[in-house]
Amino acid sequence: MSKTAYAQIHTARFGKAEEDVAPLTFVKPLTDLCLQSAALNFKSRPTFAGIPEKFKENLCKLIPTDLPLQVSAPLIESDVYWKRCASDLFQNCLPQEHGHSWKQLFFERTAEEAIENFDGSQEAMDALIELLLTSRDFIYKLQIRQFSSHADVSFLFDALPNLYSLNITYGSKNVGMKYERSIFGMKLTDAELLAQQLAKTETLTTLILNENMLDDEKVRRLVVGLRDNITITHLDLSHNKISDRGTRALCKCLGKDSVISTLILCDNHIHSEGGKFLGRSLQTNTCLINLNLRLNRLGEKGGCYIFEGLKSNSALSHLHIGGNGLGDGSGQGEAVRIFAAMLRLNSSIEFVDISSNALGPEGGMILRDALEENTKMKNMDVRVNKISPEVVAAIKQLLERNVERNREDEEDGKKLSDRKQQKGITTTEKQ
Fold first, then answer.
1. What confidence tens digit (pLDDT) does each residue in 108-148 have?
2. 380 φ, ψ to 5°?
3. How many angstroms separate the CA atoms of 179 and 30, rounded?
4. Alpha-carbon separation of residue 361 from 84, 107, 330 (angstroms)
5. What is the domain range of residue 254?
6. Burial of 152: CB neighbours in 10 Å, binned 0-12, 13-18, 19+
7. Rg, the chain, Cα only
8. What spatial distance separates the first Cα and last Cα of the chain, rounded to whole Å?
9. If DSSP codes are grouped into helix, strand and coil, which group holds residue 11?
10. How confident is the model over 150-204, as pLDDT tens digits?
């Protein structure tokens, strides 16, 4: 096209000479104008019908983030839109903690905030249930940092059929000068109401109840529901006030039919008697893989019970028993000797944290000698035990030896499996 012809077309189109209007490069494409119009009117016409697939993502970048959730939840899947919504409302958004989904993050954080601010009134309950029902397909885990209403939690389980992880702390945050002891911690009625739901749930696999001032009586109420539960594999009751009677009740959930693989009881009030009940359970339990007892009060006798129980255990791989008053500093204590005997017999434990005890120099040497005969242990934390640096270095060297041996065994096993698989393929081809 000649320059003159182009100028004539330009004048006919804009009614002005070319030098009097913006260049064509500054005129927005018609597709952009259409997308802007569709986004502007999306609230009154919420649909993607007629929008080509390649333009939908661009439209999601323009749709207002204040749409009613009843409209946006079932209709919009694009993470571009939900990232904008979440970033407008929340700080420190980490989608990797929410299934790597911005949509899941938005609905879980929104529900958490609503539950934490719930005041217990019927009007607030109706609004909260409406929100949960709208969000039910996108909520899988909840971390409720304050639940001051102490309401019946059945509404959570009834409204959220996909809930697999619940972390809930009863109480209030940032109370300042309005502090009252009664508003903190779980009550007996709270434990009973939660136990009723634990007995019925078919989806919950993780239950975290730390910092709830749980004592023995409340744990006994919870166990009523936990005994009938067949889904919870991760149970965290750390930072509470559970003592020996509560531990005895919990051990009823560790029988032959138990499905709990991780039990966290750190920072409680468990003494030697509680250690005895746990030790007995460990003798027959075949499911528990991770047991965390650090920062309790087991003492020498309690440690002995635990280690005796592990002599015949073939499931546990991780044991945290640091800060429990094991040993007397001289290495003459009974617990370290039973621990060493257990290391010679047990072939499943790979990680032990026995730090912040008082095993002493001789106790360190006893552990070193036991590790000479153990080929499975990969990591052992023996810090703050008054063990000499030379013995600590020797223990570290033995653990590195085990790691290398296990790596070689895994490689040999993989090669053998590959050869068998290849042999099977060759035999099939010949037939």
1. 999 999 999 999 899 999 999 999 999 999 999 999 999 99
2. -140, 120
3. 61
4. 59, 54, 7
5. 242-431
6. middle
7. 31
8. 72
9. helix
10. 999 999 999 999 999 999 999 888 777 777 777 789 999 999 999 999 999 999 9
**What is the reported pLDDT for 404?**
95
Token pair, residue 170, equals: 């009863």
| DSSP notation for 237-300 | --SS---HHHHHHHGGGGSTT----EEE--SS---HHHHHHHHHHHHH-SS--EEE--SS--HH
Q: What are phi and psi of 79, to 5 degrees?
A: -65, -20
Query: Residue 383 maps to which CATH number?
Result: 3.80.10.10
Q: Which residue has the tokens 């109840």?
A: 209
In a domain, 192, yes or no: no
Task: Mention every residue, 6+ apart, whose C-beta is less than 8 A from residue 207.
Answer: 166, 198, 232, 234, 235, 236
Place of tokens 């409209």: 71
Indicate whether 90 belongs to any domain: no
Is residue 312 in some structural domain? Answer: yes
Cα–Cα distance for residue pair 321/337, rounded to 1 Å: 15
* Separation of CA 14 from chain center: 62
Task: Give me the sheet containing 206-208, strands edge to edge.
Answer: 141-144, 165-168, 206-208, 234-236, 262-264, 290-292, 318-320, 351-353, 379-381
Query: Could you tell me if residue 431 is inside a domain?
Result: yes
**Length of the chain as a residue count:** 431
Residue carrying structure tokens 């009740």:
249
- Cβ burial, residue 187 (10 Å; 0-12/13-18/19+): middle
In single-letter form, the type of residue at position 34 comes to C
Q: How many domains does the chain have?
A: 1
